[in-house]
Amino acid sequence: MDNKPRIVFMGTPAFAVASLSALLEAKMNVVGVVTAPDKPGGRGMQLQQSAVKQFALAHNLPLLQPEKLKAPEFFEALSAWKPDLQIVVAFRMLPEKIWSFPPMGTLNVHGSLLPQYRGAAPINWAILNGEKQTGVTTFQLQHAIDTGDILLQDKIAITENMTAGELHDTMMIVGANLLVKTLYGLIEGTIKSVPQSNVIEDHQIKHAPKIFTKDCEIDFDNNVQNIHNHVRGLAPFPGAITKVEGKIVKLYSTFIEHGNPKEAPGSFVTDGKSFAKFACKDGYLALNDIQWEGKKRMAVVDFLRGYRKP
Predict the structure, then answer these.
(1) Tens of pLDDT along 9-60?
(2) Domain ranges, ordered by start, for the chain
(3) CB burial readout 74-112, b (16+ within 10 A) else e
(4) What is the pLDDT of residues 118-155, one digit of tens each?
(5) Which helix (H) or strand (E) is 179 found in, with range?
């Protein structure tokens, strides 16, 4: 196929690397990569390169790292690549001047079945809300965020104990494959875009805003299934939090024990040897691992070796 468009790829984290790698494997014509500027991090606060930058350098791809996306010099450098199409995966919100200028526009890969779960944290909120299914959508960017016409979608089942981290890793591969499939469809003219307004009415849409600390706090007045979903939806980052003995505790992996606890919801229950769990109003939230304040994340049995009941 010799009519492949000139593509500029925009992304930052490892999630985006899978899509960029898939484009190269499919022999797509990637003429340049845009990623975030290097940022200080680690113990020595040395400058850290994004995962996309590391991949681009390793594959000798031209690279831009704009501080400001509205800067004239960025648009000039981007225009010099003469892109037919731009692809955005896990990147910043683009100014209209940037996303609208290529002849084929700008395509985005989003981690949900749009129009459901528009926003910054679709993977987390799908699990937080107890969904049994989510997916990936390729769509065309327009002015309002995550509202452009849908190109293709692929569904992903959410299993009972799947965490946000596990869903992320699955979605990373599914999204990369869907992106390549979308590009072939655009090149061959076999894809017909669908306005999101044709899919579902606005009042039925669930959103996926950024996760804040208050969203991480566990409410033990909720039922045990919802609390288990809460833990799964925030694992491994940022982690669901509660307090035990006045100390902050993070939970990452839990399972449900059904029953009628005698203890008050939120009570920390343990034999001090083999198990630890929290009482809920309709069962127990049993722990596979735990991160006690000032400690590393560890398996419950390892934690209990050093734990002494007050």
Answers:
(1) 999 999 999 999 999 999 999 999 999 999 987 777 788 999 999 999 999 9
(2) 6-204, 213-305
(3) bbeebeebebbbbbbbbbeebeeebbeebeebbbbbbbb
(4) 999 999 999 999 999 999 999 999 988 999 999 999 99
(5) helix 164-188
Please name the residues in contact with 179: beta carbons below 8 A apart, sequence gap of 6 or more. Answer: 19, 22, 23, 87, 89, 107, 109, 138
At the second CATH level, the architecture of 6-204 is: 3-Layer(aba) Sandwich (3.40)
User: Which residue type does 82 have?
Assistant: K
Summarised one tens digit per residue, pLDDT across range 84-95 is: 999 999 999 999
Structure tokens at 127: 């699990």
In angstroms, the CA 177 to CA 157 distance is 16
Q: Please identify, in words, the CATH class of the domain defined by 213-305.
A: alpha beta
User: Quick check: 216 and 236 in contact, CB under 8 A?
Assistant: no
